[in-house]
Amino acid sequence: MEKLKILVDRLYDTHHLEKDEYITLIENRDSIRDYVFSLSSAVREKYYGKDVYIRGLIEFTSYCKNNCYYCGIRAGNKDAKRYRLSKEQILECCETGYDLGFRTFVMQGGEDPYYTDDIICDIVGEIKTRYPDCAVTLSIGEKSEESYRRYYEAGADRYLLRHETADCEHYSKLHPAPLTAENRQKCLFNLKKIGFQTGAGFMVGSPYQTNENLADDLLFLEKLQPEMVGIGPFIPHHATPFRNMPQGTAELSIFMLALVRLILPAALLPATTALGTILPDGRELALKAGANVVMPNLSPTDVRSKYLLYDNKISTGEESAQSVKSLESRVISAGYKVVKTRGDHASFTERK
Ligand code: SAM
């Protein structure tokens, strides 16, 4: 126990450990969890107090050209219900969100070639013109450096692209060719170089994942220094090749989140929907372990059940206003407060 504490103290002080040291912490997490959480929650309070930022999630297309083995909207799932939101529908989501106090809109979707760079830039530009006090986050997958630059110039502020797993071999067990870990990581470094507040992240308990893989994920985050990190459990989807694989645990997901808080003290860390799906109070526990972001859904209610990445994804069917209220009261009951600002990373000032 004393040896484990020394490791955690060093992580707290230096934001770095060696790979075998991360593995030791992960393997022995039952004995050190409370201590890790006490430090991760203190670090979160030091940087962000009790504040929780809200992001309005707009899942604007369920079409995807990729075939990731774990994902419910993979191209090969012929039963998936597909939809696309028009520019007008996306802007309506923003209008509703703005009135509810959202100052960040996250446009997320499958890799859908229908939305050319021109279309994405036009939509981003229009959102920024109508709501200059808001941040726009894109989460639309792997693109060329040139495309990322165009999105940035159109006004996009942030980009979410989970690295999924840092290990090339593990990556190839989760994704068919031509998808590679190398390209995914190259995209992330390009996004950083361009100036986006960049989000990486990974699933916990994804098929074939080892503790060594998780340690590599932490080392990758040390190297990339992303501003945001999305961590959630893998949850099987019935119409994917991984339908019979065991789901990840909330317990390990939250432990990994706490370690990430110690590695990247000022990171924006969401309490993910996947966590709330497998454990009713999963998001509250994540906030207590160091998360500081929640992402309520602003998509039109009639499309929400079609953006099914995994089985039983929580969707209350409530209108946006109602679901934001429910989430807000959950945040308050966990001892935190929802803050209605852009919620940039501490190292970023607003771009004019
Ligand atoms: N297409 C974009 C991309 O590739 O980043 C954004 C959409 S993608 C569906 C968003 C994230 O959903 C992925 O990064 C992945 O980690 C997560 N996801 C997909 N299937 C999942 C599953 N079965 N369980 C948990 N998370 C899943």
Just give the CATH class.
Alpha Beta
Kindly provide the radius of gyration, computed on alpha-carbon positions and rounded to a whole number of angstroms.
Answer: 19 Å
CATH superfamily: Aldolase class I
Task: Pick out the low-confidence regions.
Answer: none
Strand percentage lies at: 5-15%
N→C terminal distance: 50 Å
The ordered H/E elements are HHHEEHEHEHEHHEHEHHHEHHE
Pick out its properties.
352 residues; TIM Barrel; 6-stranded parallel beta sheet; 3-stranded parallel beta sheet; binds S-adenosylmethionine
List the helices and strands and how they pair.
Blueprint lengths: L1 H13 L4 H9 L1 H20 L2 E4 L1 E6 L25 H14 L3 E6 L7 H14 L4 E5 L5 H10 L3 E3 L7 H7 L6 H14 L2 E8 L6 H14 L3 E6 L16 H14 L9 H6 L3 H7 L4 E2 L6 H4 L15 H14 L3 E3 L13
Parallel strand pairs: 1-8, 1-9, 2-3, 3-4, 4-5, 5-6, 6-7
Bound molecules: S-adenosylmethionine (SAM).
